[in-house]
C-alpha cells in the first residue's frame, strides 16, 4: 500500500477493535448500535458509533476487505483528508437516510460500516469508471454498470423489505461517495460526464419514488 494509506489501516483497525469489543460485550453493543428511538431521544453518537460495530466476523470481514480493495484508489486521487471526508461523510449520510426511512419504527436497529464502505466504492467508481469489477467475483463488468445496477437493486430491496440488510444506509452511503467526490474532484464532471449522469439516475428515481409515497 502507498505512503498515505496508513489512514486506511487505522480505520480498519478501529473497526476491528470496536467490533470485537461489541462481540464480547453485549451492553457495549447495545449502547452504541443504531437505534431509532435512542437517536430521536438525543443519543446522536449512535449515528457514528454504530458504523464501527458489526453483527459477526463475516460481516466485519466483508466490509473491511471491500474497503481495503477500493480505499487506495480514493486516497491516490483525493489524498488522505479527502478519503476521510468521503468515508465519514458517506457514513453519516447513510445513517441519516436510514433514519429518515425508519423514523416511525422506534425499534429499528442496525450496525455496520457498509454505508461508509459503499461510499468509498462509489468514489472509486467515479474516479476510475473504466475499471472492471467481478460480479459474483467471476463475471467482469465495468464499474459504472455495477454501480448503477447496485443502486437500482437497493431501491427494489428497500421496497421489498425481504431481508435484514440496511439497503437504505448503503444507498445513502453511495450518495455520499457520489456527491463528496464531485465536490473534491470537479474534473470528473468534464472527463467522465456521461458516467456522472448515468450514476445520478437511480438517485433521482429514489427521491421521485419517495416523493410519490412509493417507498
TrEMBL record:
Belongs to the peptidase S54 family. It is an enzyme of class 3 (hydrolase). It comes from Psychroflexus salinarum. The chain crosses the membrane at residues 6-24, 68-96, 108-127, 133-157, 193-209. The keyword NAD does not apply. This is Rhomboid family intramembrane serine protease. Keywords: Hydrolase, Membrane, Protease, Transmembrane, Transmembrane helix. It holds the Pfam family Rhomboid. It comes from the Bacteria. Residues 44-186 form the Peptidase S54 rhomboid domain. It is a multi-pass membrane protein. GO terms for biological process: proteolysis. Its EC number is 3.4.21.-. The lineage of its organism: Bacteria, Pseudomonadati, Bacteroidota, Flavobacteriia, Flavobacteriales. It is found in: Membrane. Its main location: membrane. The keyword Hydrolase applies. InterPro entries: Peptidase_S54_rhomboid_dom (IPR022764), Rhomboid-like_sf (IPR035952), Rhomboid_protease_S54 (IPR050925). PANTHER family: PRESENILIN-ASSOCIATED RHOMBOID-LIKE PROTEIN, MITOCHONDRIAL (PTHR43731:SF14), RHOMBOID PROTEASE (PTHR43731). GO terms for molecular function: peptidase activity.
